[in-house]
Amino acid sequence: MLNFDFYNPTKIVFGKDRLNELDNLIKKDAKVLILYGGGSVKKFGTLEKVMNGLGNRKIFEFGGIEPNPKYETLMKAVEIVKREKIDFLLAVGGGSVMDGTKFIALAACYEGIEASDILFGKETSAIKKAIPIGMVVTLPATGSEMNRGGVITFNYGKWSFYNDLVFPKFSILDPTLTFSLPKSQVANGIVDTFVHVCEQYMTYPVDGRFQDRTSEGILKTLIEIGKITVENPTDYNARANLVWCATMGLNGLIGAGVPVDWSTHRIGHEITAMFEVDHAKTLAIVLPSLWNVTRKDKHDKLVQYAERIWNISSGSDDEKIDLAIEKTREFFEGLGIKTHLSDYGIQFDEIEHLVKALKDHGRVALSETGKITLDVSRKILEGAI
Ligand code: NZQ
Ligand code: ZN
């Protein structure tokens, strides 16, 4: 096992009817800015419940954070935070709202010149504090509710930032708040969580048995409950399992002490930035092809995955790997998520534009080995057509 630090201060408040506990979670004299997306929280009554939970506190609202949140939109919220001297941010939504809120929390306190520097790890000495954040999760997928990262769209690219200051103080995970999700977003959440686990698992073995077994537990749970929770949105237990898997899949636990990859995400971000394909769908496109192309470097873990996740016990190693990749693709497709670029109208000649974007964004030596060069990325994208 590799050396590691593990730190996660976020309090999780899980279960039905927990929104009324907001009153105990935020200090009484806080000036709260509630942040949300395009309106689902209004339509399905979540915002009203949040307001009730906040009692008589001074409340401000900022709606309209779009999927794959844009820097320009978030900077408008930063103005409100500064002008109104907001001292608590409450994100109510999915990954885009949660990530956007984390960025706002840092940008509002940023002491450098351009807040966009936060996205590029520049001028880190100008990041000294952040407005405290709470979260009410309406879409189980990203794990943003219990981690220190966010992803923001800036200048036609998607950029990640990480900072301990943006760990939420608390996150309310009430699975019933996710019942209103359209099937395609539930499927997105399953695939995103699945791939988060894979990015921290499908590398090379370092005898991290706890990490491997925990990752495998999450993957198996997702396979067990995936279809059920897409087809039966109000099946509480199936949805509760998805919600918890999504949080545990990316809160630092399973990636501590093991090598991690993240190249499926890096390549996927270019597809979202260029063609506005949902985040999870880009992962379903890239992952099967990436495993096929990197099968030598990932050999041992791919075989372990085939045997332990899909119970494939016969055949050569290569046959096991082929079948495991096929089963993974079938799992995604069975949830209604297409796995080829062409399914989204992206043609072969557009691959070169994606490779150029990877180059422009410095994504030229990806993966746990750094061996995914631009040529390898091109091969992966060609295999995903
Ligand atoms: O905007 P509204 O009207 O709220 O509608 C949203 C949005 O259109 C809708 N929705 C959310 N909750 C709902 C609901 N509709 C009905 N009922 C509900 N309960 O769902 C749509 C998608 O929302 P979004 O927040 O964009 O989805 P998701 O949670 O998948 O987040 C994706 C973003 O997270 C980033 C992605 O890159 C992308 O920008 N990620 C963040 C990570 C992190 N912070 O650690 C890691 C991930 O890998 C990922 O990159
Ligand atoms: Zn993801």
UniProtKB/TrEMBL annotation:
<dbReference type="InterPro" id="IPR056798">
    <property type="entry name" value="ADH_Fe_C"/>
</dbReference>
<protein>
    <submittedName>
        <fullName>Alcohol dehydrogenase YqhD</fullName>
        <ecNumber>1.1.1.-</ecNumber>
    </submittedName>
</protein>
<dbReference type="Pfam" id="PF00465">
    <property type="entry name" value="Fe-ADH"/>
</dbReference>
<feature type="domain" description="Alcohol dehydrogenase iron-type/glycerol dehydrogenase GldA">
    <location>
        <begin position="9"/>
        <end position="175"/>
    </location>
</feature>
<dbReference type="InterPro" id="IPR018211">
    <property type="entry name" value="ADH_Fe_CS"/>
</dbReference>
<dbReference type="GO" id="GO:0016491">
    <property type="term" value="F:oxidoreductase activity"/>
</dbReference>
<dbReference type="InterPro" id="IPR001670">
    <property type="entry name" value="ADH_Fe/GldA"/>
</dbReference>
<feature type="domain" description="Fe-containing alcohol dehydrogenase-like C-terminal">
    <location>
        <begin position="187"/>
        <end position="361"/>
    </location>
</feature>
<dbReference type="InterPro" id="IPR044731">
    <property type="entry name" value="BDH-like"/>
</dbReference>
<keyword id="KW-0560">Oxidoreductase</keyword>
<dbReference type="Pfam" id="PF25137">
    <property type="entry name" value="ADH_Fe_C"/>
</dbReference>
